[in-house]
Amino acid sequence: MALFTEALLRERVKKQLQKGNSTFINESLLQSGAKVLLEKSINEQRLFSKVPKQYDIFLSHSSEDEVLVEGLRLEIQDMGYSVYVDWIEDPELDRSNVTIETAQLLKDRMQNCKSLIYAISENSYESIWIPWELGYFDGINGKIAILPISKQTEYDYEGAEYLGLYNYVQRSKIKGTDTDQIWVYEKSDSYVSYKNWLTGIKPYKR
């Protein structure tokens, strides 16, 4: 199984930027190009933000991880799942201010999501919203999984051991195919596909 590494997510954004464009994408272009992709998504979403929608995943994350979040959103959508990213789906939302209105909107969105995936990174520990989102979603649904974004191919929860109480997700190809899938792990030898996990099937031991 494989983690969602920073390198993988940056490559996914580069791939999106290079569609129909042979220009080499360096780090500077990656940052500016990711902003263009995000702005396009935000502008499109402004037309539909008032319409109630259902999502597979509420993506809890640090807004400091802009490029990585865009890469992750694209990766998950490639696998056929819908993703709620607050500052994309609700572009008028101001997460920098802790207000009743912001909290209520996030509550409404979480109630329309089948699961919450926490994209944990070096920046996410500074977020004022993530712990609240985890607590609220745990109370209304309970389908929470941790998705480590790592610089390396391994990850631990040093400094946030409580996250080990939750399932975690990794990606891998479905056996005998070239199709990537998200797998939900209870332990290293106990897992189930994300699709089956949503229906209530428990992780099974291999």
Quick gist of this model?
With 206 residues, the protein is an alpha/beta fold. It contains seven helices and nine strands, in the order βααβαβααβαββββαβ.
Care to describe what's here?
The structure is a single chain. Helices cover 37% and strands 22% of the residues. The chain is α/β, with parallel strands linked by helices. Strands 1, 2, 3, 4, 5, 6, 7, 8 and 9 form a 9-stranded mixed β-sheet that branches. α6 links the parallel β4 and β5. α1 packs across α2 (27-45), α1 (6-17) crosses α3 and α5 crosses α6. It is globular, with a radius of gyration of 17 Å.
Number of helices: 7
Mean pLDDT: 80
What percentage of the residues does DSSP assign to strands (E)?
Answer: 15-25%
Structural class by helix and strand composition: alpha/beta
Portion of residues in helices?
25-40%
Low-confidence region ranges: none
Radius of gyration, Cα only, in angstroms? 17 Å
Shape: globular
Sheet with the most strands, sense and barrel status:
9 strands, mixed
**In sequence order, what are the helices and strands, one letter per element?**
EHHEHEHHEHEEEEHE
Query: Based on DSSP secondary structure assignment, what is the total number of beta strands?
Result: 9
Distance between the termini: 13 Å
